[in-house]
Amino acid sequence: MRPTQTLSAAVLAIACFLAAGVAATPRDSKSVLLNFNATVSGSQLASGKYNVKWQSHSPEATVSFMRGNKVVATVEGKVVDRGTRFANDSVLYDESANGGRIIREIRFKGSSEVIEFN
What is d(CA 67, CA 81) in angstroms, rounded to the nearest whole number? Predict the structure, then answer.
């Protein structure tokens, strides 16, 4: 192989590797709208739009709630496959003893996986 062919093959291989990494990132990061002030695993979150990022430890996950580039809360959760894709994003809440809301589960449109919280 000539040096230019070797260089071209190397550049193509690196480009494919980087493209695969970029394509995989959105799976573990989604936007979600909290319609209410709520608590998740003891952390208070104000209502509004958040970028939720998680790193799965199968099935446990470390979940970060971000506003812009700022991490507002990092909590432990669990990724569970429900077997059916959801039509919409949704947040499931429980009510606490003082009337506040507690986030129990986040569902994402087009995915059968949910993030559960204790």
Answer: 26
Q: Is the pTM of this model over 0.85?
A: no
Rounded-to-integer distance, Cα 41 and Cα 118, Å: 6
Residue 95's closest CA among 53, 36, 55, 54?
36
Q: How many CB atoms lie within 10 A of CB 116?
A: 15
Beta bridge partners of 80: 114
Rounded Cα gap, residues 9 and 42, in angstroms: 51
**pLDDT value of residue 2:** 60
H or E segment and range at residue 109: none
- Residue extents of the structural domains in the chain: 28-116
